[in-house]
Amino acid sequence: MRPINKTVLTAIAATGFMAAPALAACENITLGSAISLTGKYATNGVHAKNGYEYAIQKLKDAGGIKVGDKCYNFNVIYYDDESKGDRGATLAERLINQDKVQYMLGPYSSGLTKAIAPVTEKYKIPMVEAEGASRSLFNKGRKYLFAVLSTSEQYLASAITLAAEKAKASGKALGDVKVAIAVENDPFSLDIRAGVLDDSKKQGMKVVIDEKLPRDLSDMSAILTKVKLLKPDVLVISGHSKGAATGVRQIGEMNIDVPMIAMTHCEAADVTGKFPKASEGILCSTQWAETLAYKDDLMGTAAEYEQGFKAAFPEYKNKTVPYQVAQASAAVQVFADAFTRAGSLDKDKIRDALAATDLATFYGQIKFAEAGNNIAKPMVLRQIQGGKYNVVAPSKFASHKLDWPRKAK
Known about the structure:
Layout: E1 12-13, E2 27-35, H1 42-61, E3 65-67, E4 70-80, H2 85-97, E5 104-105, H3 110-122, E6 127-129, E7 145-147, H4 157-169, E8 178-183, H5 187-203, E9 206-212, H6 221-230, E10 234-238, H7 240-253, E11 260-263, H8 266-269, H9 271-274, E12 283-286, E13 295-296, E14 300-301, H10 302-312, H11 323-342, H12 347-355, E15 358-361, E16 364-367, E17 380-385, E18 388-393
Parallel strand pairs: 2-4, 5-6, 6-7, 8-9, 8-10, 10-11, 11-12
Antiparallel strand pairs: 1-4, 3-4, 12-17, 13-14, 15-16, 17-18
Helix pairs in contact: 1-11, 2-3, 4-5, 11-12
């Protein structure tokens, strides 16, 4: 099934995407989601929607979700938030008040989640989200927000640790290691900036560039010109998919030669497909990788999930499945698990079941802190080597050794 990408507000009931029919004996549980099908976050919005739909179909194929003595299938009402927070909040109100949705799947991005969470909290609607990682989402005392992913300050911490290790191995004083930071001015990227600043300070490194990316994420040449002039040892970039694509493209065009470059959203932006030479050696943070030893009874292993998803969505056949897809599927599994354990459709009982989640999945362990963030799953760091994404850190998860210093192509 091809991703849906509308240019106007669209309501879609997800009725499945594979040939197998839903079991007639199962009733429906309707979930709602305002998600980015257009606008600057559309690439990852579509990835997340595809991940939701894949898990929904897998549950149908497995015989549905057991709730008490009945079985149910999920169906979803989606609205396009156009990558705008105010629109997302309005659509969340519409889903709850007009469509009578009692359970929500999250939008894409921390900013959109931040816009919608006050609405779901006000109406006491449980929301399981997979794409909002900002720490600021989990310090408001919310009781109805649950996130399957690791929080954003963890995304690129491994890059600073790796840079320290390499500096020590080469005999370079940590005080001489220079760090450059270029991030989008949004909650997610600002958290990453804070984490990198904290880690750099702890290591005694010098931050020589600390810049915000342009609002439209289409040109970072001014920042990269400073990088050429100041010659940092580490360059960190966070700007979602569009920022990643712009960064890699201009790194290639401007022949930026930095020993270590780390960024977010490489896979979602398909930087290896679009910029194979420029992307070589770049470090990419990821919530999940198909080589990790995670598994569950529904999806199988992480590798089997990737194979099954590619079979269902052939447009990903020659690409690395972005972690945004996998974590969206995991969010659906968490909801299914909560309905089964609650033995009820009552939204407050579902909230309580979600709060007690301790679930092993193909995506990793999921267990929520009181604040609603997942405290059981680490981040990993992949390096693009020969056009492939290979896990290089933390060492206990590594499938390959780090190539350092990065060779400019």
